[in-house]
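Long-time lurker, first post.

We've been arguing in lab meeting about whether zinc ion would sit comfortably in this protein at all. Half the group thinks yes, half thinks no, and nobody has a model to point at. So I'm putting the question to the forum: if I give you the sequence and the SMILES, can you give me back a predicted structure of the complex? Inputs are below. Any interpretation is welcome too.
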Amino acid sequence: MRPLIEDVLDVLREILTVYSASGSGCSVSDVRLEAVRKVATRELAGHRFKNRDSAERSIHDACTRRLKLSAPAFDARVNRWLSGDPVELHSLLRSVGGYAKNRSAVESLRSERVREHSVVSREVTQAPPYPAEFIASDVIDAAYPERRETILQRLLRDTATARELKLRHHNHCQICGLAVPLWDGLTYAEAHHIRPLGHPHNGPDSPNNMLILCPNHHAQCDLGAIRLDLASLRQLPDHIIDIEHIRYHNTTIAK
Ligand SMILES: [Zn+2]
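Top reply:
Settle the argument with this. Predicted structure of the protein with zinc ion, as tokens:
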């Protein structure tokens, strides 16, 4: 018999995947339904269930009835975890059978979460091509820069390389040297890909393209708010940064 916690962890992993693919526009309950369907499909392929109905019901029950939670209560806890609550996932799963054995899986899932950047950008509209005296005053106002708020949401998902680099740097930011303190002597850092992964940048997931950063410097790098200077980065002899990636950041990402 498969331990309950493994079903729940599978659903939580799928929630992260579905959430990152569908962005910020969808509700946690929709994401949960999709995640349950995906886990059920996989378990059906493994012949654990007779049919799709019983598979989906059983996986749904694992996250709700068997955790003594209603579906909305489960969604609310998932939401708190995705919003960055550092202990939510452990407190949700601590009393579930198999927790002790799966503690490291819970911890690795905990460190993956969705973070929101709220960015206020200025949209500069061009000055009208005719003399100002011909334009009504409210139209002139419209020609001034307008502030627009954009919410960027992205998934922080560590690769094995990222986890290994964080260990090597003891979570110290390579720009400012800070290791964000948590509880019990634990610290926190984030891994940044200097040349971003995926289209259109297609940066590699390799140590020479990665920086370990505090959340503030990570956000500034991601959003192109700062330029990088290789000479002033805190580097380790066994973690060498490729200057080509630094150049790419300074020419393409930095504003
Ligand atoms: Zn920093």
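For your lab meeting: Residues 158-253 form one domain. The chain has three domains: 4-112, 117-153, 158-253. Whichever side wins, do check it experimentally.
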